[in-house]
Amino acid sequence: MTGTEGLRCMLMRGGTSKGAYFLADDLPAEPAARDDLLLRVMGSPDPRQTDGIGGAHPLTSKVAIVSTSQDPAADVDYLFLQVNVDEPVVSDRQNCGNILAGIGPFAVERGLVPAADGETSVRIRMVNSGDRATVTFPTPERRVSGAPVTVAAEFPPGDGALLPTGHSRDIVAGIEVTCVDNGMPVVLIPADSLKVTGYEDPEALESNAELAAQLYDIRLAAGELMGFGDVTDTTVPKLTLLAPPRDGGAVTTRTFIPVRCHTAIGVLGAASVAAGLRVEGGVADGIAQLSTGGDRLRIEHPTGFTDIESSLTGGPDGQPVAERTAVVRTARTLFDGTVFPRPAHTPGGPR
Ligand code: NQM
């Protein structure tokens, strides 16, 4: 692939994110060649991604690669790749529940899964984490259409520990946190322990240099404790500041992914927050309001809320484990066509 050839690509909004969706067969199999191609497709590295189709923000510089699954328990495999905006880096270290919302409709559109009468369900193996999801959505009347599709996703318990450090609370870089992983590794931090309210807008938080330095130290220390080793260059764990709810939800959040502050919250990030709120003795005690939600917890974020249905149960070793997690999102096809990557061996950046 020289870059003058085009390749088949569907651009979709999945929840609050946007990504380029590909069939695995339409991309090079070899990861280094694939990643080089994807940088040129998205227009990285360049803060504006002017010469590509990326949206110049981590939430809009995402890629999904989909193939028929060899696993009898799944219909399709979904590999998520985060394409860094201003560095020539493509990472498979995290999963993405927002982009997941488009996987079912995309698999049907590309003929990997037959459309069923009325409603179609697709069983997805999320390659990044090994976790699974079943997504169900109304079978579209027309194959490609710009109508939003409402997708219900159910996540069975994963194999990993809900509390990766084995504790409901840890002290990292001098701050009490709860490290939780219900699909996305997240460090929960009471906002007031970092001298912010947790109600600031993302721009204000991103421009707070003292906060950024503290979050950096907390993330590095928590990453080690959670078993990830040195997380300097990875996008996980995420960091979520917690404050009491203001709009009838269970909690207010501000999430760092991990440097930019999310304008909403990731789906799996919210699933981890919801589970973390239920952890006895966790840092959400005294902050979150769980009394009214039942299985459904409303996670408030800077631009609205995400509802997560979740329940925990006790594991054999007395540690809490996730029992069930479910969420509803919408996905929408933005275009389906041929994308032309920047030619090989050309730099990103302004032209
Ligand atoms: O947590 C952003 C997003 C995400 C991830 C991020 C996500 C999830 O909003 O499932 O969706 O945390 O980098 O797309």
Mean pLDDT: 94
Strand content: 25-35%
Bound molecules: (1E)-4-oxobut-1-ene-1,2,4-tricarboxylic acid
Structural class: alpha+beta
Uncertain stretches of 5 or more adjacent residues: none
Report the total helices.
6
Q: What topology emerges from the helices and strands here?
A:
Elements: E1 7-14, E2 17-23, H1 31-42, E3 62-68, E4 76-83, E5 90-91, H2 97-100, H3 103-109, E6 119-126, E7 132-138, E8 149-155, E9 170-172, E10 175-181, E11 185-190, H4 202-206, H5 209-225, E12 238-243, E13 251-256, H6 267-278, E14 296-301, E15 304-314, E16 320-339
Parallel strand pairs: 2-3, 4-6, 11-12, 13-14
Antiparallel strand pairs: 1-2, 1-16, 3-4, 4-5, 6-7, 7-8, 8-16, 9-10, 10-11, 12-13, 14-15, 15-16
The chain binds (1E)-4-oxobut-1-ene-1,2,4-tricarboxylic acid.
(1E)-4-oxobut-1-ene-1,2,4-tricarboxylic acid is lined by residues 16-17, 58-59, 96-98, 184, 235, 238, 257, 266-269.
Could you explain the architecture of this structure?
With 351 residues, this protein is α+β, with helices and mostly antiparallel strands. It folds into two domains: 7-150 and 331-339, Diaminopimelate Epimerase, Chain A, domain 1, CATH 3.10.310; 170-314, Diaminopimelate Epimerase, Chain A, domain 1, CATH 3.10.310.10. Helices cover 16% and strands 34% of the residues. Strand 9 and strand 10 (175-181) form a beta hairpin. It is globular and about 55 Å long. 48% of the residues are buried. The model has no long low-confidence stretch (mean pLDDT 94). (1E)-4-oxobut-1-ene-1,2,4-tricarboxylic acid binds at residues 16-17, 58-59, 96-98, 184, 235, 238, 257, 266-269.
